Amino acid sequence: MTAVVAAGAPIPALAGPAAPPGPALPGAGRPDVGEAHRDGPAQPTAEPSGQPVGPAGRVGIRLLDAPLDRRDDSRAHKYIVDHVRPGTTVKRRIVVKNSSEIRRKIAVYAAAADVGEQGFEFAPGRTENELSSWVRVERGELEPAPDEEVVLPVTITVPARASAGERYAVIWAELADIEGRSVRQIGRAGIRVYLSVGPGGEPPSSFDTGPLRGARDAEGVPVVTTEVRNTGRRALDLTGELWLSDGPGGLSAGPVRAEAKTLAVGDTTTVRVVLDRRLPDGPWAAKLDLASGWTKRTASGTVTFGGQPVATGGTDRSSQVLTGGFVTSGLVLALFAAYVYRRRGRFRAPVPVA
């Protein structure tokens, strides 16, 4: 069993009709990558009469502690992230909160998840996979009062013969029945589980970044992008900050938050940072700091937002330009020499015949 420390993250809550998430800073886009995740539409289930059920339901969930050796890993304070040997027992505590206006029944359970082309993907309903079958929540059903928080122990028992590899699941808190009426479509909140199993030390996490590129989208909004490839052996959750400096008139901007979908091993994604449309075209000195837990990288270069995207830090093409210039110059000289030769032949004096 691994030693744990308090995670200390604020508890999120999900409501029926959800408000769209706002950007962390002006002009910065923000995908859904927090510790709470919605599964399916967040609409109250209607009675046969077509009227929605009761007050809007709200449920929140958070992780209460994290491994001691991951105290500096930001991911481990939001999700259950660990590497263990086969036969290990992992213990964590979670907090479930009823943020509804009335007492609610809440079901707490583990379900399957995976990392694919769309990022961290949740299986429908209570679909089970290998990892979720290892997870046990001490109390599977709760009925807390309004605004009441309940601490629940969670145990993950890894079989002694478990094969090596990283597995994914989610621990969900879901609103259950009210007087026999199902309200499960109101929403559920969950904590992701990333569990690596195998002998020895933890598989490395690593990623490479491409050159920064600047452009304006179809609506004229400036965007900075870079390609990121997962070169390690664990899935990544990338977050970071973009800084712009040395702009026109000495302007600077940032930090602007950057996020991306969960990146599977060997996959590539585009990190896209949306900026304020009022920014001038540039040029700008750009610096993008990215991290997944304690794995960090920095990409930097010069970007502009006029016309086509501009690559920075790419392949040096000066030799190609010089070679092209030499070829063109040689061709011009050859044509000129041929022209002179023909002219001399045309006006050459006749040779007297003996």
Overview of this protein structure:
- The protein is globular and about 60 Å long.
- The strands form five sheets. Strands 4, 6, 7, 9, 11 and 12 form a six-stranded mixed sheet that branches. Strands 13, 14, 15, 18 and 21 form a five-stranded antiparallel sheet that branches. A four-stranded antiparallel sheet has the order 2-5-10-8.
- Residues 8-55 and 309-354 have low confidence and may be disordered.
- The chain is mainly β and 354 residues long.
- The longest helix has 29 residues, at 318-346.
- A hairpin with a 2-residue loop joins strand 19 and strand 20.
- The protein has two helices and 21 strands.
- Helix content is 10%, strand content 38%.
